[in-house]
Amino acid sequence: MRKLPALISVATVAVLALAGCSASPSTDKAAGASSISCTDSGKVSDSVKVAGKANAEPTVKFSKPLSTKTTERSVITEGKGGAVKTGDVVELAFAVYNATTGEKMNAGGYGDAAGASITLDEKSGVFPAIIKGVACSNYGARVAVVSPPADAFGGAGNADLKVGAKDNIIFVIDVKGQIPTRASGKDQKPQDGFPTVALAKDGAPTVTIPKADAPADLKTEVLKKGDGRKVAEGATVTVQYSGVVWSSGKVFDQSWGKGGPTPMSLSSVVPGFAQGLVGQTVGSQVVIIIPPALGYGDAGQTQAGITGTDTLVFVVDILAAGKA
């Protein structure tokens, strides 16, 4: 199923959130991805007038309705960074318009706000129009993309976003930067009583739970200390994570080998996860032990195999953070 990056999903109109449907695919898939062809400009994309400073939401003007048979991409600003490569995890800001009705659907990720993250891979599940807009761009570029339904919402459209079956879509995309796939901070000495964490070559963690009762309170340790921005309460962060049930040692959810670097709002995760990350720095890897009361509570999370008495352990690589 094709997906919009979380920035403009129906459930997260204003903010990024962890919804279990990240736009980024496995880094393993990306590593083997073939190069993506460049998309040409055309009369339709060239007719979209974009003005405004870099790293701020642009002013976008066009004559409705716009329609194209194939996706067109016009470069507004070349960008001074290196070329985006297939398999890169890329942070984007963008404004999205219905090219038929002229309505702005959403915009975000500008300035210090966290952008949407995608992996540049045709198999990622992200709208092909977005992949085509980013491919062959430089970091720092701004591009205007006009997409027919085939490269956006498809023939069904999207009733929630008021997109008709024949509506074209305009994406004005800022290629903000490359997001790392793992924490790069300085190694720290592990604390006694915490699970042990072993890392694979790609950075994916394997967690071993100690043969002891789980602590009753929230506990946090830093395994790698980054020197980036501090995570603020309510901020949006991009992370790699693995979640394990203390009692069984089983992984119940993870981004590794699945979603890849995942954007989420700390206002929409379980309390213990947010509390464990606030005050930490980008580039860090942290272990968070979350008691039931600060996790899924008495109800647990049946679909994930979590009961109301389960303590959870998360290993989290903090890759990016926006302001709250």
Automatic annotation (TrEMBL):
Residues 1-19 form the signal peptide. Pfam families: FKBP_C. The keyword Signal applies. Residues 34-43 have a biased composition (Polar residues). Keywords: Isomerase, Rotamase, Signal. GO terms for molecular function: peptidyl-prolyl cis-trans isomerase activity. It comes from the Bacteria. It catalyses: [protein]-peptidylproline (omega=180) = [protein]-peptidylproline (omega=0). InterPro entries: PPIase_dom_sf, PPIase_FKBP_dom. Residues 234-322 form the PPIase FKBP-type domain. It is an enzyme of class 5 (isomerase). Its EC number is 5.2.1.8. Residues 23-43 are annotated as: Disordered. Belongs to the FKBP-type PPIase family. PANTHER family: 39 KDA FK506-BINDING NUCLEAR PROTEIN (PTHR43811:SF19), FKBP-TYPE PEPTIDYL-PROLYL CIS-TRANS ISOMERASE FKPA (PTHR43811). This is peptidylprolyl isomerase. It comes from Cryobacterium shii. The lineage of its organism: Bacteria, Bacillati, Actinomycetota, Actinomycetes, Micrococcales.
